[in-house]
Write a structure and sequence with these properties.
Elements lengths: L1 H6 L20 H14 L6 H15 L3
Length: 65
Amino acid sequence: MEQLLRDMELTSLTLAILPSAAEDITSSDELALHEKAFGALSGAAVYEDAASDLVDKALAFWSGG
């Protein structure tokens, strides 16, 4: 997560995060479904500072802070 926060500063990287629960993707059908959903929900994605804030919150949660 810390590396992700650093990499988000790269001008060559665009990162979008859809705030939701994580789940395991185990098949190509599931991957295709997630790609379709991401395309449909990309307007709800957050970028730049808002994305960094979500990553910070996740990092704090997982580190117990």
